[in-house]
Amino acid sequence: MSDNTFGRLFRMTTFGESHGPAIGCVIDGCPPGLEIDAAAIQKELLRRATGRSRHTSQRKEKDEVQVLSGVFEGLTTGTPIALLIENSDARSRDYADIAEKFRPGHADFTYWKKYGVRDYRGGGRSSARETTMRVAAGAIAKKYLNEHFGIEIQGWLAQLGPIRTDEVMDLESVDDNPFFSPDASVVPQLEEYMDSLRKSGDSVGARISVRASNVPAGLGEPVYGKLDADLAAAMMGINAAKAVEIGAGFACVEQLGTRHRDEITPDGFLSNHAGGVLGGISSGQDVLVSVAFKPASSLRIPCRSVDIHGNPVEVITRGRHDPCVGIRATPIVEAMLALVLMDHVLRQRAQNG
Ligand code: EPS
Predict the structure, then answer these.
(1) Ligand 1 close to Cβ of residue 320 (< 6 A)
(2) Looking at ligand 1, which atom is closest to the CA of residue 126?
(3) Does residue 107 line the site of ligand 1, with CB under 6 A?
């Protein structure tokens, strides 16, 4: 399986499967001298972890990160940073019934078509467990970006199924509820919706938004390697992502040019429909990205499918699944934004000093 590496100058290569002994990554290209605070990495990992509330997968993993290399006396040395998390609560028997069946809407169909072999336990390599490493590497990128540029990255749940959660924007409260909602007043409604969804056995989609502030102007390449193109690729590379918007996104279809253009005054821009990127290059405005996550496909409600021999079968997926994968996606979206900005900061330094 190729392409397990993300980034050009700040390169993260991940490995491992959800039900293998461990999941890990090697980060190549991290500048030396960055203080690595294992507690800060751990904090990010726990924001993403399963079992933080009854609304997510109940798999119980400590997600304790081990830093195996690249750090000496608390500082990065410029050598590869290897991170490892052991898997301790995989329950592979849940997957025995679907070892030769395809879950409609799941990657197990296309993995089989591509490789003719698949690790069916817990989705194998296609499992969202791989995102632990994005979050861990993202925590290092976040630290560098913050220390060197004052960049702050904050994500939030903008919508869960039919419920909008971004009408009141109190970003300080995002980490105070298990949904990452910026509006605390909708949390009871989210709880009720999720309780009833869980009972029904179905799943639902969500939209996550993220903002990076204090991003310097000039990041991104003008033709290939545009900052917004790299952001779109990074976000679409997250499990279950189905759409990405930068700034006004699809709303720009209905906007007139006089509204969409962000007028400029000596004191700065008057709006930010561009989402902080013009011509593929950061403008110095906040970078704004939104990602749509589909309803997950591992459901206990029976459905029609086929097995690997093409025979019609009924599929029921057992196990400890997320009825809304978007609930845990906020730290992952933040991490991918951090990884893209980190890469472009190093690329900008390489060419422009
Ligand atoms: C996942 C299915 C469940 C989740 C898992 C993602 O895994 P399993 O059935 O193997 O327990 O628990 O999420 C994690 C383990 C994690 O750390 O995010 C999937 O199919 O993507």
Answers:
(1) yes
(2) 21
(3) no
Q: Alpha-carbon distance 213 to 159, whole Å?
A: 22
Is there a contact between 335 and 137 (Cβ–Cβ < 8 Å)?
yes
Q: Are 288 and 246 in contact (CB under 8 A)?
A: yes
Q: Report the C-alpha gap between 157 and 260 in whole angstroms.
A: 24
Give yes or no for a contact between 106 and 120, defined as CB atoms under 8 angstroms apart.
Answer: no
pTM confidence score? 0.98
**Range(s) of the domain holding residue 286:** 5-352
H or E element at residue 111? helix 107-115
Q: Which atom of ligand 1 is nearest to the CA of 92?
A: 10
128 Cβ closer than 6 Å to some ligand 1 atom: yes
DSSP state of 136: H
* Ligand 1 pocket mutation pick from 45, 203, 321, 332 by most atoms within 8 angstroms of CB: 321
Domain count, the chain: 1
* Residue of minimum CA distance from atom 15 in ligand 1: 129
pLDDT in tens, 164-201: 999 999 999 999 999 999 999 999 999 999 999 999 99
| Contact indicator for 81, 141 with CB cutoff of 8 Å | no
What is the best residue among 14, 17, 18, 102 to mutate for testing ligand 1's pocket, by most ligand atoms within 8 Å of CB?
18
Digit-coded pLDDT (tens) for 225-262? 999 999 999 999 999 999 999 999 999 999 999 999 99
CATH number of the CATH domain containing 307: 3.60.150.10
17-68 pLDDT, tens digit per residue, is 999 999 999 999 999 999 998 999 999 999 999 999 999 999 999 999 999 9
